[in-house]
Amino acid sequence: QLQGAHGFDLPYTTGNYFMGNAENNTVLALERWHETENTNGDMPRLSVADPAGNFSFSDFWLSNASYLRVNNVTLTYNIPQSLCNKVLLKSTQVYLGVQNLYTFTRSDYRGVEVDMTYTSGYYGNPSQKMPLPRTWTMGLKISL
Of the chain's two ends, which shows fewer C-beta atoms within 10 Å, N or C? Predict the structure, then answer.
C-alpha cells in the first residue's frame, strides 16, 4: 500500500528552532550562522531574545512537504502441501509484514513528519510531531 501527497508546503515552527525551552533540537541548529564558526550558515543565529526578528513567520520557514510513503508490505509463503500432509496439517502459511516501511520526502524538507493532522483548532506542527513507528509482524497460520 502506498500513500502520498504532492504540491504543498508545511511550516517549520520557529519557536522550537530558537530553543526558548531547555530541550533537544534538530540538526538545523548545526546549520545556524555563527560569527566565527559558521559565517556561511543558512539558518539564523540562535538567540532566545531574537533581536533580528527571525522568530516572525515568513516563507523562509516553509518546506516542500510532498511525499510518498510505503505503508504496508506483507510477504506470505505457503508451505508445500506434501510437507503439511506428513505432519497431518491441511495447510500452513508463514508471513512477515511491516507497516510504515519508508517515507520518501524531498531532501530539503525540514520537518520530522509530513503527514499532518488537524487538531485542537490549529494545524499540527511538523517540527514537533513524532515520526510514525515502523511495526513488524511475523506469524504462522496453521489449518488442522
Answer: C
Query: From its phi and psi, is residue 49 left (phi > 0), alpha (psi between -120 and 50) or beta?
Result: alpha
Placement of cell 497460520 in the chain = 141
Question: Of 68, 66, 69, 89, which is closest to residue 79 (Cα–Cα)?
Answer: 89
pLDDT digits (tens, 9 = 90+) for 115-144: 765 454 444 455 556 678 899 999 999 998
pTM: 0.64
Q: Which of 12, 37, 31, 39 is nearest to 116 (CA)?
A: 12
Q: Which of the 8 DSSP states describes residue 2?
A: E
Q: What is the pLDDT of residue 100?
A: 92
For residues 124 and 117, what is the distance between their CA atoms, to the nearest angstrom?
6
**Percentage of the chain with pLDDT > 70?**
69
